[in-house]
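The record is kept unedited without comment:

——
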Amino acid sequence: MSRHFRLKAACGATLAVLALGVYLLESRPAMAEGMDEQTRGILSGLPETAGLVQGATIANNPAAMTSIGRIFREGRGVPRNDPAAAFWFGRAADRDDPDAYYELGLMHLAGEGVEKDEKAAARWIRMSAVQGNPMAQYRFAQLYDGYGSFTPDHAKAAKWYREAADKGISKACYHLGLLYESGKGVVKDETAAAGWYRNAAENGLPEAQYRLSVMLQEGRGTGRDTGQSLLWLRKAVDQGLSLAQYRLGMMMLDGRDLEKDGSGGAALISMAASQGLIEAVYAKAIILQEGRLLAKDESQAAALITDAAEKGLAAAQYRLAEMLQQGSTLKKNEPAAAAWYRKASEQGLSDAQYQLALLLEEGRVIDKNEVEAAGWYRKAAEQSNADARYRLAVLLEEGRGIGKNEESAANWYQKAAEQGIALASYRLGMLFLEGRGIKRNEANASAWLTKAADAGIVDARYRLGMIFHSGLGGQRDQARAVTLFTQAAQEGHTQAQAILGFITENGLGVRQEYNTAAKWYQKAAEKGNSDAQFNLGNLYARGEGVAKSYSNALALYSKAAEQGHSMAAYNIGTLYVNGLGVETDRQKAAEWFKRSAQQGNLPAKQMLQVILSDRIPKIP
């Protein structure tokens, strides 16, 4: 038995075969002598060993030993017997046969017939490779390409792939193409990659046909040629390559580079899914959910999505999380949804990172953690996720979970706004308007607020209206201001209702209408706006647009004054001084004037002094 390796424990039949081998090698020079009829019949019927049983010597013929090893390894004419194969390969290896080195290496790599030993496998395969065995060179390259527990060394992998590729090994050409396409171990060169793919594709390798098709479709490393791309893709499909089936199926669904064919696309995707390609499994699930191209089956769809998610497909993990969060098809389970969002997030899926960050920021389903939320928002934002860019900017502006940085917030708001996030346009406009984190610029503020207003952000309409109403940055346009205030007011914006009441009361760019003013003041006053309460109180005190009522005026002034409105407090004082709607009461008048005066109201200070000096004139 070879001193270079240890055979696995063998059964009695195997021991008999090994004994036969020793007998054939050592007891007689001619294999035909002393051979039982069954063995003679097996070996004489095989081309590789027919000559041996005609009297040729085997003792010094390592190639013959390797051939016999392959017979037992492949089970050709005899039951497969790996220990017997290893015995013959070992004998041939002792006589320096490079093919035997290679076969022994494969057996050690798989742990079949001998103990699994990757180091021994590498040693045997290398010995064969350096003697020029092209398949050994290919397999040795694979070891350097990250196979099993071997430490990757892509430069060495490229060297050995080229050795094998130059000898016509199609798989080596394909893998060399992968290295050139990715730039691993070699200088990235898509032209070279396409060339190596073509070499292997022309020799019928479906994986290479698929990659060549992709490059032709995308115009990388070769001129874009959708016709040739489809030709090579179909060749790979015809050989049953699941990736090709999936890609062509998706193209047929979308009508991309060929006529749209939903049924044909669904069929190809189903074929790829049946081979276990998780992308295809997921795509089939979505088709089943939609129920357009295949009979709707939400239960099977959920099972397929779960299967793809458990096998690590980020898109499926994200979809499963959505289903669990929404309670659609599957029972609602928000903590489980959060866990799946996290799995997809850890694979870099930006939509999942955004959703996980929302849950962490909110703290309802999982523990609140604004620091971690900011981290996930940033990861998604750096992948151009517009929603994440907006939320990251909010945290930066407010200093939650991350150091406050209005300048950085403005930068992220702008990125999100340019991607169409209306709230980002609004917040960026406000930063420009207030000069926070960015130089004050009313024109830029107006431009961004206009985008937000056009997208339906109600407060943006109000803020933009204020710019045109006050003429900030030389942009006075009262008619446009009224239009914006009216739009916002009709959507329930309290401040817009209050300012619209003021504009209408005073006829600023519109016809003066006290009853219309009273209507808008009333809406805002009911929602607690102190200015509207005060101004509506004035209308009641004067009887303009409403029936005159000092008691109603007093009630409205009181609500405004309780919110710190100094003029409302002053007006209450005047009602008590003059006995309007209430009995004259100097003490109460003094209390209200004092409250107003403490808020900086000069007329209230003067009236308080008058009351205290007993000189109380009637106040109109």
Observations:
- The mean pLDDT is 91.
- The first helix runs from residue 12 to 26.
- The two ends are 123 Å apart (CA to CA).
- The domain at 1-131 is CATH 1.25.40 (Serine Threonine Protein Phosphatase 5, Tetratricopeptide repeat).
